[in-house]
Amino acid sequence: xxxxxxxxxxxxxxxxxxxxxxxxxxxxxxxxxxxxxxxxxxxxxxxxxxxxxxxxxxxxxxxxxxxxxxxxxxxxxxxxxxxxxxxxxxxxxxxxxxxxxxxxxxxxxxxxxxxxxxxxxxxxxxxxxxxxxxxxxxxxxxxxxxxxxxxxxxxxxxxxxxxxxxxxxxxxxxxxxxxxxxxxxxx
Length: 187
What we know:
mainly alpha, 80% helix, Rna Polymerase Sigma Factor, Chain: A, globular
């Protein structure tokens, strides 16, 4: 009986989502974001990239909301989109490593430096990297990392599109990573 109730509840949420309900979107987001994030971290070995996958999955859910079928489990749809996003991130990373002549060991070392900075709570280097960002990128980064806002919430707050928020975040993360790698190598 509980499975029938859950199926009904999910079908109702999808029906509301199809109509543009922010409440239904938030319920689905709250229900699945942590599991998608954990899978992203497991495969990408990066909390930042995993968060990007989560944001991409839920942006796609919002933009595709009218096409989601209420009689099919949304969980399967979400995890398929997440899997594809993770694979795309891995392909992108592999291409970047190859183009830059970076080995997997170099990437792990840079990730390790970031983990050490965060783990030791010596955030001075990270704060310096964030401080060097252009204003829009800095604001987006701070909203995501410090206030835990979604791209949609940031878009509303800054009066820009969620895709622009995503672009600012991607650029901010790239600049921060490059700064940390330079700082780690003593440049």
